[in-house]
Design goal:
Layout (H helix, E strand, L loop, with lengths): L1 H14 L1 H13 L8 H13 L3 E4 L7 E6 L4 E7 L13 H20 L6 E7 L8 H7 L8 E3 L2 E3 L10 E10 L15 H16 L7 E8 L10 E10 L2 H22 L2 E10 L6 H13 L8 E2 L3 E2 L10 H7 L2 E2 L2 E3 L9 H6 L3 H23 L1 H17 L1
Parallel strand pairs: 3-4, 3-5, 5-13, 6-14
Antiparallel strand pairs: 1-2, 2-4, 7-9, 7-10, 8-9, 11-12
Helix pairs in contact: 1-4, 1-11, 2-4, 4-11, 6-7, 8-11, 11-12
The structure holds zinc ion (ZN) (2 copies).
One zinc ion binds next to loops.
Length: 400
């Protein structure tokens, strides 16, 4: 039964290919930043309503949405859309394609549900804003949007093709040093230099970097280094991101970094304020869902990136970033495979922006969507598969 339903789902996706491409292009042409994705929200909800979904606009957040199909209860499979862009460089993470993929997979799964050969099952498409900044999914978890979800799946365009990639936990800080202003030529000894504290902290972190594990990352900017060269800076501000593959490793890194930021304040006589901003957990890809995704992808003719990439090494050891899907993966069994759109450029570059609206990118997006739809059908038609997914989830959560 599953094979027949997959053919129905995949045909439904192919039949909507033109509409899906134009949907994605509309979002690509009008890049909107976190929590400002009003156009994208409207375009997506209109599209899904036209396709027969029951749509909740502004679902707990102004630019979030939910679209549903299938029965009123039973196994609930969620597919995720993202659609926020980056400042100045547009859709350099290809979230227009993630929106397209979520809708495409949804159309396929709905077509399978509409055959009524699946006894009881349902589909939820969740439109999740603010992935790049703001943690939209984390807020939606707090708002209860995942409470009735059994599994959650999404795909992300990248320069590589892998069911599971390393997406690490992230913690964000804004660090402020406060000193004392003074005339930099006449009475410099009266001043307490907050910029010096920022520089000492920056250099301290650079020294720490040599002793960090290869998969840890710390990177930051000085967002305020003073106002004029003839005034001893009374305020400075740094923004830092700290990342590690697990929450406990991240905790260790946070403590090491905190000691450096505090010491830089003491060294220079400045007071220091370390403010916690966003935090996302690492991505725990559900092992059973990954197997299903891999099998469906191979059936669709997908070729995965080899483990060893020349010039990079083992691609599975390289953190490809962080995502608020990490938080979701601690709530429900989840996957977040990455798929290639035919560019060697990495995400967050202008080259990737260009690659995120080519015919080839749309073709690959539909293939990845079909793999997601295939996984959903596997789980919806086979209670044993769903049980295996839930068992893996339990086991993996004990190991994190
Ligand atoms: Zn990104
Ligand atoms: Zn992204």
């Amino acid at each position: 039964m599953a094979d027949k339903l997959k053919q129905i789902a995949w045909s439904a996706i192919d039949n909507s290919a033109i509409g899906l491409q134009s949907l994605s292009e509309k979002i690509w042409l009008n890049p909107e930043l976190c929590f400002e994705e009003h156009e994208a929200h409207d375009v997506l909800t209109r599209f899904l309503r036209d396709k027969g979904f029951e749509v909740d606009e502004q679902y707990t957040l102004k630019t979030a949405f939910r679209a549903r199909a299938g029965a009123d209860d039973g196994v609930n499979v969620a597919v995720i859309c993202e659609y926020d862009a980056l400042p100045n460089i547009g859709h350099a993470c290809g979230h227009n394609l993630i929106a397209e993929a979520g809708c495409a997979a949804g159309i396929g799964i709905k077509a399978a549900l509409d055959t009524s050969e699946i006894p009881i099952g349902r589909l939820t498409i969740l439109g999740t804003p603010a992935e790049e900044d703001g943690g939209g999914k984390s807020l939606m978890i707090k708002n209860g949007c995942f409470d009735d979800v059994d599994i959650a799946m999404m795909v992300h365009p990248m320069p590589v093709e892998m069911p599971h990639a390393l997406f690490v936990a992230i913690h964000q800080w804004v660090i402020t040093y406060s000193g004392k202003a003074s005339h930099a030529a006449a009475f410099p000894w009266e001043g307490v230099n907050a910029l010096d504290a920022a520089i000492a902290a920056y250099n301290g972190i650079s020294v720490l970097r040599q002793q960090m594990r290869p998969s840890w990352r710390v990177h930051g900017i000085i967002s305020n280094g003073g106002t004029k060269p003839n005034i001893i800076p009374e305020k400075s501000e740094l923004q830092y991101l700290l990342r590690a593959p697990t929450e406990s490793e991240l905790e260790t890194l946070i403590e090491k970094a905190r000691a450096i930021f505090l010491a830089a304040g003491q060294t220079t006589g400045c007071s220091v304020d370390i403010k916690d901003e966003d935090h996302c957990m690492n991505l725990v890809s559900n092992k059973t869902l990954l197997d299903l995704y891999t099998r469906n992808s191979l059936d669709l003719g997908v070729q995965f990136t080899p483990d060893h990439v020349p010039g990079i090494g083992n691609i599975h050891d390289i953190p490809l970033g962080s995502t608020d899907m990490g938080d979701v993966s601690y709530e429900v069994p989840s996957i977040h495979p990455v798929y290639s759109i035919g560019t060697h450029a990495f995400n967050h570059t202008r080259e990737f922006t260009a690659a995120a609206n080519t015919d080839f990118a749309h073709e690959r997006t539909l293939v990845a969507s079909k793999a997601i739809a295939g996984c959903a059908i596997d789980v919806l038609t086979d209670p044993e598969a769903l049980k295996a997914v839930k068992d893996s989830f339990k086991l993996q959560m004990q190991q994190v």
